[in-house]
Amino acid sequence: MPDVLTTCCYCGCGCALYLTVRDSRVVGAAPSRNHPISRNNLCVKGWHIHEFIHSPARLTEPLLRKNGELTPVSWDEALDATATALARIRDRDGGRGLGVLASAKCTNEENYLLQKLTRAVLKTNNIDHCARL
Ligand code: SF4
Which run of H or of E encompasses 114? Predict the structure, then answer.
């Protein structure tokens, strides 16, 4: 199979790279020569991006702690539990009880929506970005 041109998912720079696929497994990554962002370069995360794809440590489904044990659940159950917990904290402690970290892996539009959710629904200005950790 030929190498697959795609966009690096690690950060918002949007470098283009080729994934090397052998026997239905992604085994390597290399930068796109002509892409206006990456220009034949990748940072260390981009060069190693293929390593998580087949990792047995990769989380592939939501986990919810039940009776002290992390238990696989559906996305609906995970989202309901998260929304319920956030609402409970907001109603009990107000905005000072919550904080949100946006992600470099999100698009600008997704991060915009996250700050709207944080300020309008969670009632707090406690929002920052993972790049400032
Ligand atoms: S290669 Fe590095 S700089 Fe480029 S998008 Fe991926 S993480 Fe970001």
Answer: helix 108-116
Q: C-alpha angle with apex 82: 80 to 88, nearest 5 degrees?
A: 100
Q: Is residue 8 lining ligand 1, measured as CB closer than 6 Å? A: yes
Residue nearest (by alpha carbon) to ligand 1 atom 2: 43
Instruction: Give the CATH number of domain 4-52.
Output: 2.20.25.90
Q: Using the mean position of ligand 1's atoms as its centre, give its distance from the Cα of residue 8 in Å.
A: 6
Is the pLDDT at 133 greater than 90, yes or no?
Answer: no
Q: Are strands 63-66 and 25-31 parallel, antiparallel or unpaired?
A: unpaired
pTM reported for the whole predicted model: 0.72
Of the two residues 80 and 37, the one the predictor is more confident about is 80
CATH 2.20.25.90 spans which residues of the chain? 4-52
Q: What is the residue with the minimal CA distance to atom 4 of ligand 1?
A: 15
Rounded Cα gap, residues 23 and 101, in angstroms: 38
